[in-house]
Amino acid sequence: MNKPQGRPAGPPPIGRHPGPRFNGPAEKAKDQKATLKRIWSYLKNQRVGIMSSIFFVVVSTLLSLLGPLLIGRIIDDYILRFNIEGAIRMILVLAGIYIVSAIFTWLQTFMMIRVSQKTIRELRQQLFEKFQSLPIAIYDKRQQGDLMSRMTNDIENLNAALSQSIIQIVSTVLSVVGTGIAMFYLNWVLAVVTLLVIPIIIWSTKQIIKRSSKNFSQRQRDLGNLNGFIEETISNSHITTLFGKEEQTVAQFKEANEKLRASALKADITSGFLGPINNFINNLGIGLVIGVGALLVIVNFGVSVGVIASFVTYTRQFFRPINQLSNLFNTFQSAIAGAERVFEILDEQNESADVPEAITKNRYEGDVEFRNVEFAYQPNKPVLRKLSFRAKAGETIAFVGPTGSGKTTIIQLLNRFYDAASGEILIDGQDIKRYKMANLRNHIGVVLQDTYLFSGSVRENIRYGKLDATDEEVERAAETAYAHNFIKYLPQGYDTMLVSGGMNLSQGQRQLIAIARAILEDPDILILDEATSSVDTMTEVHIQKGLNNLMQGRTSFVIAHRLKTIENADQILVIKDGAILEQGNHDGLMEQKGLYASLQHQLQVQQ
Ligand SMILES: Nc1ncnc2c1ncn2[C@@H]1O[C@H](COP(=O)(O)OP(=O)(O)OP(=O)(O)O)[C@@H](O)[C@H]1O
C-alpha cells in the first residue's frame, strides 16, 4: 500500500527502494465509528463475498505458516540424513503448499476486489444522483474542485482500502499471531529472542514517523498549491496570453515547483530511512536468532539446524507485517475520512420538495408579480429589500443597474434556485411555491451570458431545447433565431462538431445557437442575460432580430446591456442595492434624468 495519504492526492514517489516506508500522516475522520458503521451498511449485502474472502485469507496464511516448519523438517529429517529422494519428495510437497497458498491469495484478492467494486459503484451512483438533486445553493457554497475530489479521490481511497487494506490487516494480524505461536511451539528461547527485537522496530518506526509527519504535511501543502496553480493557469490560459503574463506565470510556477522539490526531498529523505533501518533491525534479529540458535545447538538445548532454518524464515515472516502495519492503518484511516466526506454530501438536504398537490400547467400565461420580496445569501447581508413589481403577460421587463445590485438574484428567485426569505412571488396569481418545481422550470426558458454548449454537433446542441424535435424543426428554429445563416457556412453545417463547450465558435455565434435552442423550447416565460461583450455589427443585428422573435408573445425578463433591448422594453426597472430606484419606460426614465439617464449615457459612449 504505497499510496500517498491525505489530500490532495499526488503521484506515487518515484525511485523508492523496497521495504516499508512512511507515506505521510493520515487524515482522520471526525466520527470514525459512525462512518465505519455506515460503510458496513453498504457491505452488508455482500456478506458471501466478504466471508469467502476471509476464508481464503485464513487458509492461505495458514499454508504459508506451514512452509517454514516443513523447511526445518526437510533439513533435519532428510538432508542431514542424506535421504535425497525423500528430500525431493518433500520439496515437491513444499512447492505444492506454496502454489495452493498463492492460488488462495489470488482468490481472496479477486473476491475482495469484486466486493469493493460493487460497493464503490453503488456509492458513486448515489453520489452522482445526489449531485443532480442538490439545490443550486450548494454549488454556490462549495468549491467545484472540492465536490469533484469527493467523487474521484475520496471514492478511490475507499476503493483501495476495501479491496486491499482490510484484507491485508486481517492477514497481517493472522500471520503475526500464527508465526508467534509456531515459533513458541518450535523453541521458546529463540521465540523470546525474536520478540525482543519488536520494541526496537516499533521505537525506530515511531521516531521516523514523528519526524516525517511535519515534512509530509508541508509536501502535501506544496503539492496542493502547485496543482491549484496549474489548474488555474490552464483554465485561464487565454487571459494569461492576453495580458502577456507568460513569463511571470512561468516564474511563479518555477518558484512553486522548487518549493515542492525541496519539501518532497526532505519528506522522502526522512521517510526513506524507514526501509533501510528496519531492514537493518530485521537482519540484526535474524543474526541474533542464528547466533543464539547455534549456542543452543552446542549446549544441546533441543535445537537442530532445521529449527534454526525454520526460525530464520519465520523471523522474516514475523517482522515484515509489523513494519507494514502503520502504513496500512494510515491508508485505512484516510479512506474512512474520505468516506465521511462522501457521506457528508449524501446527507445534504435535497432541493425543497414540492408542496402536497402541487400544481402543474400545460401553459403559463406569464403574469409575474414580486410582492415585498426580501432575500439574503448570508445572514445580515440583505441582497433584495422589499422588492415589488409586476410584469403583465407578454411584457418585456428590463433590469438595469450597477454591478452587484441584485439583478441576477431576482432571476434566481424566479427560477426557484433560491426561495425568498419573505414576501411572495406570484405567477398567474399563484405563489410559485405552489407549482410543481419541475413543471415551472420546464416552462421558463433561459438564455445566459455564458451559453452552455456541450461537445456534440450544432444540431444536437439546438435540439437540447426539445429532445424530440425533428431536423426540420431544428432548422426552422435556427432560421427564426437568425442562426441559420452562419450555421450553413460551417464546414459540416448542422453536423459540425463543437469542441470544449463551443470554443470553436465566436461568442455571438454561441448566443445565436442558444437563442435557437430557446425558440425550439418555446417557453412561456423567458429569462435573458444579455452578453456584455461586443460582437460584430452583422452578428449584433442577427442577435437582436433573433431575440425579438424569441421574446414575441411571452413574458420576458432581460438583464439588459444593449440599448436596443432596453429601449424596446415595456418596463425598465433600475435596481440599486437590491431595491427599485427608478421604474418606467425609456422615454419616461430619460426625462427623470436620474441613474437610468446617466447609465444610458455611459452605454452610448461604450457602443
Ligand atoms: N451565491 C452567492 N453567495 C453569496 N453572495 C452572493 C451570491 N451571489 C451573489 N451574491 C451577492 O449578492 C449581491 C447581488 O448579486 P447579483 O449577482 O444579483 O448582482 P447583479 O446585479 O446581477 O450583478 P452583475 O451585473 O455584476 O451580474 C452581490 O453583492 C453579490 O456579491
From TrEMBL:
Membrane-spanning intervals of the chain: 48-75, 87-107, 158-178, 184-204, 286-314
Region (Disordered): 1-30
Entry keywords, A to Z: ATP-binding, Membrane, Nucleotide-binding, Transmembrane, Transmembrane helix
GO MF, one annotated term: ATP binding
Keyword match Protein biosynthesis: no
A Pfam family recorded for this sequence: ABC_tran
Protein origin, superkingdom: Bacteria
Subcellular location: Cell membrane
Every ABC transporter domain range: 368-602
Keyword Methyltransferase appears in the UniProt entry: no
Domain ABC transmembrane type-1 as annotated: residue spans: 53-334
Topology class, membrane: Multi-pass membrane protein
Cross-referenced PANTHER family: ATP-BINDING CASSETTE SUB-FAMILY B MEMBER 10, MITOCHONDRIAL, ATP-DEPENDENT PERMEASE MDL1, MITOCHONDRIAL
This protein's name: ABC transporter ATP-binding protein
